[in-house]
Amino acid sequence: MIGHTETIDEFLAHRTADVEEAVRHAAAAEIMPRFRQLAAHEIDQKSGPHDLVTDADRKAEEYLTETLPKLLPGSVVVGEEAVHADPATYDAIQGAAPVWIVDPVDGTRQFVRGESGFCTLVALTLGGVVHASWTYAPARGQLAVALRGRGAHLDGQPLRSGSPAPGRDLEIATSHPDYTTDEQKRALLGLNTEGVRPRPCGSAGLEYLAVARGELDATAFSWEAAWDHAAGLLLVEEAGGTHLTLTGEPFRVTGGNALPFTAARDEATARRVRGLLAAGA
Length: 281
Prior knowledge:
Elements: H1 5-31, E1 43-48, E2 51-54, H2 55-71, E3 76-79, H3 80-85, E4 99-106, H4 108-112, E5 119-126, E6 129-137, E7 142-147, E8 151-154, E9 157-158, E10 170-174, H5 182-189, E11 196-200, H6 204-212, E12 218-221, H7 226-238, E13 242-244, E14 261-264, H8 267-280
Parallel strand pairs: 3-4, 10-11, 10-12
Antiparallel strand pairs: 1-2, 4-5, 5-6, 6-7, 7-8, 8-9, 12-14, 13-14
Helix pairs in contact: 1-2, 5-8, 6-7
Region (Disordered): 155-175
Pfam families: Inositol_P
Organism: Streptomyces kaempferi
């Protein structure tokens, strides 16, 4: 079993292309053939009408769950659909083995509507630290890869988040109201102020990519599910951005975070957004 950072680094130095191939294959074989082709019986609700799952989600996760541990013996997979079936599988994130955190179709509502704003998210973690991530938007032909300490790239080109232009309103993607408690709603209301333009988020993975590209200034999210955040948070970090919880600490994929939290293009923006959320709370 892999048990130390150097070995993870060795793996990433030689096998990132294999992970990329697995992610691309999952999308090509299981997701894209169903894009705009879904039948009613291939779509189900989980917790409610805004929480959907399709055969594409299930089949892509099954493929990645079989394939990724073969690339890295001793590793395990924590996938969104597997956790829905058995919540105890989420506990592996706290364990000693390397963990692949997988969201097979992030933005399932968009996928079901036949829109291109969805992606496959894969992150490799060890001891709660995200070491690598892959964000693949197959309908847009985009693949973003982040390696801890080695930067972030979109289709082979370096990503730099930069800083917002002085005097311009901050654009912030926020949690859907259906996924917020009353307390979190009050905190998010702190963003309704001069100089800030909050809007509902789409696919979390693509919102993180937009922050890493400098197209979106920040996010403000109120849920902890690691498959939605692990890949994108590393992408933002390696592009030059940062993330803070309501108490001013970095977000932990292992949980126990003070919510809502923000990921932003730079530290100053993250601190500003966190301050507004704290004032609202």
